[in-house]
Amino acid sequence: MLYLWIKALHVIAVIAWMAALLYMPRLMVYHSMAQVGSDKSETFKVMERRLLKAIANPAMIVAWAAGLFLAWDGGWFVDPWFHAKLLLVVLLSGMHGMMSRWVKDFAADRNTHTAKYYRIANEVPTVLMIGIVILVIVKPF
Q1: What is the SS3 string spanning 7-65?
Q2: Signed CA dihedral, 92, 97, 98, 100: sign only
Q3: How confident is the model at residue 47 (pLDDT cuts 50, 70, 90)?
Q4: Could you give phi then psi for residue 75, rounded to 5 degrees?
Q5: Using one digit for the tens of pLDDT, what is the confidence trace for 118-138?
Q6: How far apart are CA 28 and CA 15, in angstroms?
Q7: Who contacts 114 (Cβ-Cβ below 8 Å, separation ≥6)?
Q8: pTM > 0.85
Q9: 8 A C-beta contact, residue 70 and residue 7
Q10: Do 66 and 9 form a contact (C-beta atoms < 8 A)?
Q11: Which of 51, 64, 98, 116 has the fewest CB atoms inside 10 Å of its own CB, making it the most exposed?
Q12: Each residue of 78-122: pLDDT tens digit?
């Protein structure tokens, strides 16, 4: 029964984490077009910081902790599909780290990227998520 509760917690955390990773670059698209120092720019700073600190970071921590428990309990550390999934989750975590850096850059008015850059960056979590879901559900190898 504990396994099922941890699995539910993992799914909830992954949904929250993905929502944050998909919304953050979208905020940055619009933030990058706002005038530095404007009310709009300052509002985006607050939104980005709160999204990162209140949703993205806790959700990532819970997703990792619950996921590692599930992998240990399920004995998946020896399965090739799990190695591929873990690689994609590490890349997703790297994307999270990049977004954290961008939030700090925006907060300090040091953004150097264009709206187009953030539009492209917005697609990376989606592609990684598709790969992760396919590996977990289909277990192709």
Answers
A1: HHHHHHHHHHHHHHHHHHHHHHHHHHCCCCCCHHHHHHHHHHHHHHHHHHHHHHHHHHH
A2: positive
A3: very high
A4: 70, 30
A5: 999 999 999 999 999 999 999
A6: 20
A7: 32
A8: yes
A9: yes
A10: yes
A11: 116
A12: 999 999 999 999 999 999 999 999 999 999 999 999 999 999 999
Distances (CA, A) of 14 to 40, 112, 139: 30, 30, 19
The Cα–Cα gap between 49 and 42 comes to 11
Numbers of helices and strands, H then E, in the chain = 6, 0
Question: In this structure, how many other beta carbons lie within 10 angstroms of the beta carbon of residue 1?
Answer: 5
- Do residues 52 and 103 lie in contact, with contact meaning Cβ atoms separated by under 8 Å? yes
Angle at which helices 80-107 and 123-138 cross, to 10°: 160
Domain boundaries, the chain: 2-138
Alpha-carbon torsion (113, 115, 118, 119), positive or negative: negative
State pLDDT tens for residues 10-35: 999 999 999 999 999 999 999 999 99
